[in-house]
Design a protein that fits this description.
Strand order of the largest sheet: 5-4-3-2-1-12
CATH topology of the largest domain: Nitrilase/N-carbamoyl-D-aminoacid amidohydrolase
Shape: globular
Mean pLDDT: 93
Number of domains: 2
Number of strands: 12
Largest sheet: 6 strands, mixed
Order of helices and strands: HHHHHHHHEHEHEEEEEHEHEEEEHH
CATH architecture of the largest domain: 4-Layer Sandwich
Radius of gyration: 24 Å
Number of helices: 14
Strand content: 5-15%
CATH superfamily of the largest domain: Carbon-nitrogen hydrolase
Helix content: 40-55%
Distance between the termini: 32 Å
Structural class: alpha/beta
Length: about 450
């Protein structure tokens, strides 16, 4: 695609970028069709959604004169586009092109600088340098090779430097991650839920010998309005009393006519704290006002929470929960970190996507979130991937995916300072955008001077 854009007009640049990203997004998010009735059509709408923000990189490339050197602006413009797509409209950009690099610990550390999109910048820059190495000749090819070596040395050196250090002697929080693997399509009638509550109880009992500090259940595991359902209230309270251990679990809450996707924290001293999910999943949990979409009538409509809740244990450990897709949103994690959280706990229920690419993509996004804010993350998922992620994005312990299981993990309360936590997204978006346009304009000025001289 980059090779084709060297001499393209603005319309062709915009159309090529749009189609490329649209096809990539559809292929990456093919699992979306399994969300439920009436949702699969969103795959066809994805290209339309990205058409307007795609004008930013297209216009920047068009400012530069035709030729291979216009591609030097591309990594900056693409990085700015991806950041912007995550911050406007639906506030979600899942299929970033640098996501596969999350599996390479040394490379993935760049996410601590400008968030997950830093990896897309890296992928785009590598692609541009490869195109230039093939298309340029003489000294220009030598400059491209030198730039590639400098980029590689800088990224690898930064990654190795950040990866050094020891976690010995740190305070930890022992979390019992309970992965019940409960089918999402089952309707939780009073008759159906008893076997599943029994399964959860059996899994919790497996962790008694390890004496966890907190028992964690995934998103929506206590399926219902736990405050108003006596059976569910009795289940969670009896679990806390029997285990003499705090319980963190996903359920639902109601205040008046508003319903919330919620996380509850209950300890043996009868302390009850609640977090209402702040960033709801579009189309699934709420209906975007600017799109003519109406969910099926049997889907619960949620209201977004407003408070970045930080839970505290009796031992003084502080953690925050991120429900479902929130663990892929570094800006949300940044707010928790700045509010005093020492640990992130992701409560996830994506059982209906088991066997697709969604769990791996979701895990990669969570790893990049942990790197971006410099905090460890424990993920407790209904069917997987349940695991412990350290602040460097490395998975230290993982439960088997797609089966009922429980395990205790020792989450280190290690907080690493990161540039992203200090700055957030907007300075990086502005900087990348201005850098991309500046490179394009400078190449045009240089081209005009050369033309005048000849």
């Amino acid at each position: 695609m980059l090779a084709a854009l060297r001499n393209a007009s603005f319309v062709r640049i915009w159309f090529s970028l749009w189609v490329c990203h649209g096809v990539y997004s559809i292929l990456a998010m093919w699992w979306l069709r399994q969300t439920g009735s009436g949702v699969g059509w969103m795959l066809a709408v994805l290209p339309i959604y990205f058409a307007i923000p795609m004008l930013l990189p297209a216009a920047g490339l068009a400012l530069a004169p035709a030729g291979p050197l216009r591609l030097l602006a591309f990594p900056f413009l693409w990085g700015a586009f991806e950041i912007l797509a995550r911050l406007i409209f639906l506030r979600l950009n899942w299929a970033i092109v640098g996501l596969p690099l999350a599996d390479y610990p040394v490379l993935s550390q760049v996410a601590s600088l400008a968030g997950p999109e830093s990896l897309s910048f890296l992928a785009a820059a590598a692609s541009v340098l490869l195109v230039l190495l093939v298309t340029l000749r003489g000294k220009q090819r030598g400059f491209a090779a030198a730039a590639g070596l400098v980029l590689t040395a800088a990224v690898v050196g930064f990654g190795l430097a950040r990866s050094t250090g020891s976690t010995s002697g740190l305070r930890t929080l022992k979390l019992a991650l309970v992965q019940p693997d409960i089918p999402q399509e089952v309707i939780w009638t009073p008759q159906n839920r008893e076997p599943f509550l029994g399964r959860i109880t059996d899994l919790i009992n497996r962790t008694i010998a390890d004496a966890p500090d907190v028992i964690v259940l995934p998103e929506g595991t206590v399926n219902g309005l736990v405050r108003y359902d006596p059976r569910l209230t009795d289940f969670v309270r009896s679990t806390v009393i029997r285990m003499r251990t705090p319980l963190l679990f996903g359920s639902f809450d109601r205040q008046g006519d508003a319903f919330f996707n919620a996380a509850f924290y209950i300890d043996p001293f009868n302390t009850v704290a609640t977090y209402h999910k702040i960033r709801l999943a579009p189309f699934v949990e709420y209906e975007p006002a600017f799109l003519p979409f109406h969910r099926p009538s049997n889907w619960l409509r949620f209201t977004a929470g407003t408070e970045h809740t930080v839970f505290s244990t009796k031992g003084g450990q502080r953690f925050s929960t991120m429900i479902c897709l929130e663990d892929s949103m570094p800006e949300v994690a940044r707010d928790f970190a700045r509010s005093g959280a020492q640990l992130l706990v992701g409560l996830v229920n994506t059982q209906q996507y088991l066997g697709t690419s969604e769990p791996l993509q979701h895990l990669r996004r969570a790893r990049l979130t942990a790197i971006a804010v410099g905090l460890p993350m424990a993920r407790c998922a209904n069917s997987g991937v349940s695991c412990l992620i350290n602040p460097l994005g490395q998975v230290e312990k993982m439960l088997d995916e797609g089966r009922p299981e429980a395990a205790v993990v020792n989450a280190p309360l290690l907080s690493l300072d990161t540039m992203y936590r200090r700055t957030g997204d907007w300075p990086w978006f502005t900087g990348m955008l201005l850098a991309g346009y500046a490179i394009a304009l400078l190449s045009r000025v240089a081209g005009d001077k050369i033309a005048s001289a000849t």
